[in-house]
Design brief:
globular, 277 residues, 83% helix, mainly alpha
């Protein structure tokens, strides 16, 4: 993986941790998630006319990815409504790279090198150790998180292929954001109109900030997937847990104990190994 791709994916990981923190820290995780998707959709409407449109060969992948994104965002809201971010987020993100790497060898014919497998394994081990340190009695939250790991792995493979075929990763990302926002807009207008508009009046900025962060984060990751193996990019994105830990320590003033520090260092080690792959 080139230094440029490495740096861009790490920056994307920072943005990913930031918008997840916005959702978890809000008073209503469901409405905030919807605000984020609508913010991303609004950003897409403004930017799409100025970008190259995706090639026709990618539209089938785009349609499937939009459905998967709706399921993904729904499960994010459900997981954060039932479990702490410190457990749900690592579980969602930790299993996905292993699934992507394993399935990708069969589905798209990518074969990571032994060094790359070592990096993927280190990142996944570090992320999962963070998740599994918590209490495992919250079966509902864990079930949502693990289900979303499968969804994440699936849309990663779909979007990685779609972005390569599109000839325009940025255009592909923004169309995906717009198509994802439409079902959520219909939902709030039909089912939660009054509650949503009341919530949006005072929390619109969460949607704006989170929307820009999620579009930029995923767009950069998809671009990287056109330059490097999808499995490597998927694993490196999970360094978002590093940024989540830093946010918790420096901004939220949470204590970072020795096991969490060790797990964080394992993730960092995996990122360094991936850089060498």
């Amino acid at each position: 993986m080139s230094l440029a791709a490495f740096g861009i994916v790490v920056f994307a990981a920072l943005l990913h941790a930031a918008w997840n923190a916005i959702v978890k820290g809000a008073s209503d995780t469901t409405l905030t998630t919807i605000l984020v998707t609508l913010g991303a959709g609004a950003f897409a409407i403004v930017a799409l006319p100025f970008l190259t449109q995706p090639a026709p060969a990618s539209w089938g992948f785009l349609a499937v990815a939009a459905i998967l994104q709706v399921v993904y965002f729904s499960l994010v809201a459900a997981a954060y409504g039932a479990a702490d971010m410190s457990q749900a987020y690592p579980l969602m993100r930790g299993f996905a790279p292993l699934i992507v790497a394993s399935v990708g060898t069969v589905v798209i014919g990518e074969h990571p090198t032994p060094i790359a497998w070592a990096g993927i394994g280190l990142i996944s081990a570090g992320v999962l150790s963070l998740a599994l340190r918590g209490r495992l009695s919250n079966g509902r939250g864990i079930a949502f998180a693990l289900a979303n790991a499968v969804v994440i792995a699936t849309y990663t493979l779909v979007d990685g292929t779609g972005a390569r075929l599109s000839g325009s990763p940025a255009g592909y990302t923004l169309w995906l954001s717009l198509l994802t926002a439409i079902p959520f807009l219909v939902y709030v207008l039909v089912r939660r109109r009054e509650a949503f508009f009341a919530y949006a009046r005072t929390n619109w900025w969460l949607g704006a900030a989170g929307g820009v962060a999620t579009v930029t984060s995923y767009g950069l990751a998809l671009w990287a997937m056109t330059e490097a193996p999808i499995a490597l990019v998927a694993a490196l994105r999970e360094t978002s847990i590093l940024f989540g830990t830093l946010i918790a320590f420096f901004i939220l003033r949470e204590k970072i104990d020795a096991p969490r520090l060790v797990a964080t260092l394992i993730i960092a080690s995996g990122a360094i190994v991936l850089r060498l792959a």
